[in-house]
Amino acid sequence: MVGPKIRIDQVSYSYGNEQALRDISLDIPANRITVFFGPAGGGKTTLLRLVNRLNDLVEDTRMSGRILIDGDDIYSPGVNVPNLRRRVGMVFALPLPLPGTIRENIVYGPKLAGIHDRGRLEEIIERSLIQAALWDEVNTRLDSPAGALSGGQQQRLCIARSLALEPEVLLLDEPTSGLDPISTRKVEESLFELRDLYTIVIVPHSIQQAARVADYAAFFLMGELIEFQPGSEIFTTTRDKRTEDYLTGRFG
Ligand SMILES: Nc1ncnc2c1ncn2[C@@H]1O[C@H](COP(=O)(O)OP(=O)(O)OP(=O)(O)O)[C@@H](O)[C@H]1O
Questions:
Q1: Sequence-ordered strand ranges (E) for 70-159
Q2: How many Å lie between the centroid of ligand 1 and the Cα of residue 204?
Q3: From the centroid of its chain, how far is CA 30?
Q4: Which end of the chain, N or C, is more open, meaning fewer C-beta atoms within 10 Å of its C-beta?
C-alpha cells in the first residue's frame, strides 16, 4: 500500500495559553482532495499553516507531535524551509496578485528558483494557466495587468502562480470566500483537474463546498479532530453526533 503523502502525528499546538490543536493524528492521501471543515476557531487554518511552516515566525507558540511529508519530518533541524515551501504551495482567501502583468506573476517564482530560459518559462506559463482553468480567458492578454482581472480570475491566477513552482502539495485556505458562484465553480473545477497531479488540502468556505469537493473530509471542533472519513460518507453517515449537529445547522 502507498503511504500517505502527509502524516499528521499527534500534533498539539498553542498560541500562548490558548490551545488551538489537541493531539491531531491524520493521514492525508496523495492525489485526493482533503477538506478541513468545521466552525470558526476550530484550528483548521492553524493546521494548514503548520504544513508549510508558515507559523514559524509567530511568537510565543508551542508545538508537539510531528508532521511528515513522504515520511520525512518537516520540522527536523536540517529541513530547508524555502525548499519545503516550493514543494508545498499555499493559496489564501484573498487573491493578492503581484503588481505587474499576468505573465510576470507566473514567472516570478520560477525566476527566483533560477529558471531563466525563455522557452521553459513560456511552457510554465501555459501549463500553470491551463491547470488553473484560466488559460482560455487570458492567453491573448498575458501582458496586461493582473490587477485588471476579475476577482475570480485573480484567484485562479494565484493558484497558477503556486502551480508554476510544480509543488507536490497545494494548500488552499478558503480560496473562494470572496468570489461569486460562477468563479467559485471555476476554481472548484480547476481543483478537480489538479487532483490527479497534486495532493490538495482545502479549508472550504461553506459546508456545501466541502460536500462538493471532498474526497476525504476532516471535521474540526475547538481544536479537536472529531472525525475523518471519505467525503461521501461524512456528509451522509456521520459517526459523531457533533458532526451531524454541525452539518444540520444546529450550531455554526
Ligand atoms: N496568530 C494567532 N495568535 C493567537 N491566537 C491565534 C492565532 N491564530 C489563531 N489563533 C487562535 O487559534 C484558534 C484556532 O484558530 P484557527 O484560525 O486555526 O481556526 P479555524 O478553524 O481556521 O477558524 P477560521 O474559520 O475562523 O479561520 C482560535 O481560537 C484562534 O483565536
A1: 72-73, 88-91
A2: 15
A3: 13
A4: N
Percent of the chain, pLDDT > 70?
99
Nearest CA to ligand 1 atom 9: 46
CA-CA distance, 13 to 134, in Å (whole number)? 37
pLDDT computed for residue 139 by the predictor: 97
Angle CA 178–179–180, to nearest 5:
135
Residue range 64-107, pLDDT digits in tens: 999 999 999 999 999 999 999 999 999 988 877 888 999 999 99
C-alpha cell read off for 225: 479532530
What spacing in Å lies between the alpha carbon of 239 and ligand 1's midpoint? 26
Looking up cell 482545502, which residue turns up? Answer: 202
Structural domain spans, the chain = 6-247
What is the per-residue pLDDT across 184-233, written as a single tens digit (0 to 9) for each?
Answer: 998 898 899 899 999 999 999 999 999 999 999 999 999 999 999 999 89
Rounded-to-integer distance, Cα 57 and Cα 193, Å: 33
Q: How far is the CA of 227 from the centre of ligand 1 (A)?
A: 19
Of 25, 20, 22, the closest CA to residue 9 belongs to: 25
Phi, psi of 30 (to 5 degrees): -75, 155
Amino acid at 126: E
Tell me which fold the domain 6-247 belongs to.
Rossmann fold (3.40.50)
ipTM reported for the complex, 2 dp: 0.95
The answer to whether the CB of 90 falls within 8 A of the CB of 52 is yes
